[in-house]
C-alpha cells in the first residue's frame, strides 16, 4: 500500500515538521537552495535467478557519458554531461529536468562477481546484469596421519 504523502493544508510557514494527511508528523531537514555537484539517479534493483539486475533511466546520455564502478558489494553509476546552462534571455516557466551530473551508489544485498558483470544502454535505460558470486563450494581435504 502506498502512503499518502501530500502535505496537510494547514502546514505553518517555516515549520521544521512535515505533517501528512494521515496525521503523522516527521521532522524536516532544512531545505537548502545551494546547488549540488550531482543529483541522485533513480535505480531499480531486483534479483532474478542467480543474478542481480539494476536499471536506471538515463535519458540523453551516451555510453561515453556514463561510468559504472562495481565491487562485490557495491554499485556506483556516474553520468557526466552537458550542464544545460541557459542563455540569460531565456525565461523558464517550469524547469524540472536536471541536465548536469548524476550519481548513485547502491549497496548490494548479495555479493556479486564483478568480472562477469555486464552493462548496456538501450533507449535511455541503463541495465546492469550482475551474476551472484558463488559463495560456497565443496572441497575434499585429505587427512594426514601424524601418528608416525
TrEMBL record:
Superkingdom in the source lineage: Bacteria
Cited InterPro entries: A-crystallin/Hsp20_dom, HSP20-like_chaperone
Domain annotation SHSP: ranges: 34-146
Family: Belongs to the small heat shock protein (HSP20) family.
Identification of the protein by name: SHSP domain-containing protein
